[in-house]
């Protein structure tokens, strides 16, 4: 690695103080943020070094949430050493095999079964006032990335006044539906890319943005993934399995699965709009264009949900206009 990387040089010097200099350093994973991860290999095994450059990144939420998840019995990296001011952490290594790289039609049921159980363990530890609230301001701010970055910047489109009102109304309805759900701890990116095959299974990564909010958020993140899609029949089946186990565990899910699945779908729509905006922002602001290849997946997710609920017909018209399609008639599910 080049000595012209000032932060990498500083990280090496910090690791020397922690481990001596008998180790090697290699990139461990890519990240959509400004954080970088390196695998530290020494005679006694491997560790992970995180470089989170201040002021763009803050290690403190990672350390706090890691402790909460560990206390809840969730398999997360342990913090071995930290320099919060400089943005360096040394962590235990959960391995190299992500769910995303391992999962397929034949093993998805087993892997997702373990992921459901681990998620329920995390949600059962929930307490108000510990993590930031997933409140109206944050939900709205995330969805506002869609018109700003995906519509205006990526598509170069301008919505007319009628379509803008329609979009605003849809986002208000989505926020109201989200806030009506019971609140629990929310990982906020609980998806196969952030889950590691391990023992206990899965190991959980990328949890520093955790909040206290809608109970369906992590469930829909798991099954309506950014990088792999499943047919609706399997998604419904897995969601039923979560719902049944969550009820048995005493989590605040209602007795009507249909109502729960509606919450799941509407919550997913908030995430789909947010991710479309985030992927465009990562491209144009941060110079990472690869994520844009997965935007059609989220458009397809959003269109499918809008097509199932009469209250979302207007949002479907917005997508029709953006894609120059003939207007689609929505129906109530």
Distinctive features:
single chain, 333 residues, alpha+beta, Aminoglycoside 3'-phosphotransferase, Chain: A, domain 2, 2 domains, five-stranded antiparallel β-sheet, 12 helices, disordered C terminus
What can you see in these coordinates?
The structure is a single chain. The protein is α+β, with helices and mostly antiparallel strands and 333 residues long. The protein has two domains: 6-92, Phosphorylase Kinase, domain 1, CATH 3.30.200; 99-322, Aminoglycoside phosphotransferase (APH), C-terminal lobe (Aminoglycoside 3'-phosphotransferase, Chain: A, domain 2). The protein is built from twelve helices and nine strands. The strands form three sheets. A five-stranded antiparallel β-sheet has the order 1-2-3-5-4, covered by helices on one side. Helix 6 (145-154) packs across helix 10 and helix 10 (257-284) runs antiparallel to helix 11 (295-306). 37% of the residues are buried. Mean pLDDT is 94; it is low at 328-333.
Nutshell version of this structure?
The protein has twelve helices and nine strands.
How are the secondary structure elements laid out?
Elements lengths: L5 H14 L3 E7 L6 E7 L2 E7 L8 H12 L7 E5 L4 E5 L6 H4 L5 H17 L11 H8 L1 H10 L6 H19 L3 E4 L8 E2 L6 E2 L6 E4 L2 H7 L8 H18 L7 H28 L10 H12 L6 H10 L11
Antiparallel strand pairs: 1-2, 2-3, 3-5, 4-5, 6-9, 7-8
Helix pairs in contact: 4-9, 5-7, 6-10, 7-10, 7-12, 8-10, 10-11, 11-12
Main CATH class of the largest domain: Alpha Beta
Distance between the termini: 55 Å
Number of helical segments with 4 or more residues: 12
Question: How many domains is the backbone divided into?
Answer: 2
- Helix and strand pattern: HEEEHEEHHHHHEEEEHHHHH
**Mean pLDDT value:** 94
For the largest beta sheet, what order do the strands appear in spatially? 1-2-3-5-4
Q: Say which CATH homologous superfamily of the largest domain is assigned.
A: Aminoglycoside phosphotransferase (APH), C-terminal lobe
The amount of helix comes to 40-55%
Q: Mind telling me which CATH architecture of the largest domain this is?
A: Alpha-Beta Complex
Q: What is the radius of gyration?
A: 21 Å
Give a count of the beta strands, DSSP E runs of length 2 or more: 9
CATH fold name of the largest domain, please? Aminoglycoside 3'-phosphotransferase, Chain: A, domain 2
From the spread of the alpha carbons, the general shape counts as globular
Q: Proportion of β residues?
A: 5-15%
